[in-house]
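I am going through a labmate's work and have reached the protein record below. What it holds is a sequence and that sequence's fold in token form. Please read both lines and tell me whether the tokens look consistent with the sequence. Do not assume that whoever made the record got everything right. Thanks in advance; the entry in question is below.
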Amino acid sequence: MARLAAVQFHFWRDLQGGGAPEKMEEFWEFCPAKPNVRAFAQPLIDGMVAHLPEIDERIARYCDNYEFRRIAPVDRNVLRLAIFEMLYREDIPPVVSINEAIELAKSLGGNDSGRFVNGILDRVKGDLSRPLREAAAPKPQGSAPAT
């Protein structure tokens, strides 16, 4: 449900020409969710916004002979979520992000959405240097960030 909410938020942004609601509460009123769903979805939403240019560049790079703006909005936003998770959420194994994205694409998108999303994410997966089936170990409290 949290991933669905994150995709819905970014789909809404696309419909608004890239603009977000003035207050996040506007989105949560439009798309009500339980507190635990919101707690998981909000960092996904915020992270996708923060890294949108890099994520979109990667999608465009792997969409050979296909214009970025012509990708179906549902597929584009499912890809954005999965790529954000794969690149920036080490607590989520990449294969989980890929599988969840394929299922979202199949349920929300067109007939070929699952296959399209899988093809792009398979190429992104090849760029990763971390284990595909494991979450990274949590960092100890108070440890200095890597430089």
